Request: fold
Amino acid sequence: MPIGESPAIQRTLSVWWLIVAAVALRLAWVLLANPNPSLAGGDGPFYLHLGNQIARGNGMQFNDVPMAVVGPVYPTYIAGLQLLVGEDLVQETARVGQALLSAVLALVLYAIGSRLHSSAAGLWAAGLFALDLRFIVEAGAISTETVFSLMLMLTVLAYLHAHGCAKPAWWLLAGMLAGLTTLTRAVAQLLPFVLLAHTWLQRRPRAAGRNQLLLLAGFAIAVAPWVARNWLVFGSPSIGEGGAAHFWLGATGSGMWTGNEQMMTDVERLRIAPGSAQFAYLSDAFKTIFSNPARYLGLRLQRMLGAYAQPFGTVAVGGVFGDASLKAAAGSWGTAVAMLGYPVFWLKLWMYVWHFGSVLLAGACVVRYRRTPAVWLLPLLVIGYVSGLYAMLTIIPRYLFPIMPLYVVLAAVFLAAPRAAAVTGTDN
Reply:
């Protein structure tokens, strides 16, 4: 076989072509389609402010008050870029940097798909992700989503590697990456236990017992400085603030959370016990839940289904190409025909197809490989953990967005199954 026809070389070339495509599409969005995004009403100004404070040596504070509503990783990313290029260029540089990080995520998904199933699944995962308009658009936002998604997928990949080899260093690394993921968004703070649950469910208790300390030690090493800082500043060894308020909002059905800056501004107004030195979010939330458990469960199910029913990123596309609604187009034939002439219609349709297609194909993957849990168990555990935790808190499509790459991987496994079976002569 000529060297140019080597399957390994062909796969390598295919992967790098996909990475090039991912970079090109994301930079096209950031630099050409949406070079001057409006940050009004979102978390962008909040993160730029935090990054500016860190760059100036003031630490994580808002309005001259120390805070821990968000983790330090993303504001530190902003601060590092500000020190590198200056305050005037930090927003543009951060967006370009995220375009590159999102392309790196395509490479990570290739590795995850290859480990879970086959190189064909890895190529499908990288390709689907590279062309996923949701992630193309999000790379240009000043928010944690791109960095958090990358850190979460790196943790999954490191754990898969640790699970498949006998080197203790990989377990330590997986724990440290889980810690950095948590310092990007505190919802990941129980992620090490999800990973250990996977090991036990795979009927490898000896491996879990031998390596769980390394995994937890790596996690502790990563989060210890931040926890110590919060202990000194706030008097409690916590990873983040605001969880109780989010839980209260979810229990009472008081609406959707509007952003971290709004949380800092309204925190006094949201006291359940006016005049008290302590917040009473938890006690009031549990009182509401126990007074009508059926209502609470129905409300949380409704919120979760609503978050899954709306692909994230359609608002950003509408802001650039005109806000035309797919729901309105579905209301009448005349409106639907008129919508065909709007570019935003096709862009939003692109997002809807990728969103619901990946979710449905992921479900089909689990059904197809129901007797081979090694293929789908870990992605499903992480998906279930993040979805379930947010279902009890304030849930919106943006909060579920970082687990969407796992749906893409499972969809890729399903699409790659026929080819893999033809090559190996089995159905895996």
Remarks:
- Residues 255-261, 263-270, 422-428 have pLDDT under 50 and may be disordered.
- The two ends are 27 Å apart (CA to CA).
- The longest strand covers residues 61-62.
- Residues 329 and 336 are 4 Å apart (CA to CA).
